Amino acid sequence: MGKPFSVNTNRFDPYKNFRFLVYFEGTSTPVAGISKVGGLKRSSDAIEYKEGGNMIIRKGLGRTKYDAITLDRGVTHDKDFEDWANAAQVLDKGVPSQSLKSLRKEIRIELLNEAGQPVHRYLVHRCWVSEFQALADLDAGGNSVVIEHIKLENEGWEHDLTLTEPAEI
Predict the structure, then answer these.
(1) Is there a domain that residue 134 lies in?
(2) Half-sphere exposure (Cβ direction) of 153: Cα atoms closer than 13 Å
(3) Is residue 55 part of a domain?
(4) Which domain holds residue 145?
(5) Which end of the chain, C or N, has fewer beta carbons within 10 A?
(6) Is 60 inside any structural domain?
(7) Would 9 be classed as within a structural domain?
(8) 82: three-class secondary structure by DSSP
């Protein structure tokens, strides 16, 4: 039998990938309508080196890179995505359209159990919008929701292990 999850020692089943919430820095309410969050991925460069007199090539830890994270949601009247994307937009005057303070944000991603309680929390640091799609392709013959999309560059993420064990359902 595998090792149980750290939040609930009696649980062996994996959590569902469709129960999650995303929060932007400075808000206590989740961002409205997010339907998809790209995966959290990091990779480290391997630095090869050779020690004198040893024929084996050693590998050391190099720089760590964090992949961009994408957020998709249905278009609503909420302007969180657009406002953040516009923070980096440069006007004719040569300055950002908003304060540089609003350019980078911390975000929090929470994975929920079946009862809607947070069981895993990830903190993503110093995010900024590198890509914004205000409107997806429109199709008169389709029946899907109109999607907007942002791509967030970041300077790292961490698994927040401070969650306490939720009550059983």
Answers:
(1) yes
(2) 9
(3) no
(4) 20-41+67-160
(5) N
(6) no
(7) no
(8) helix
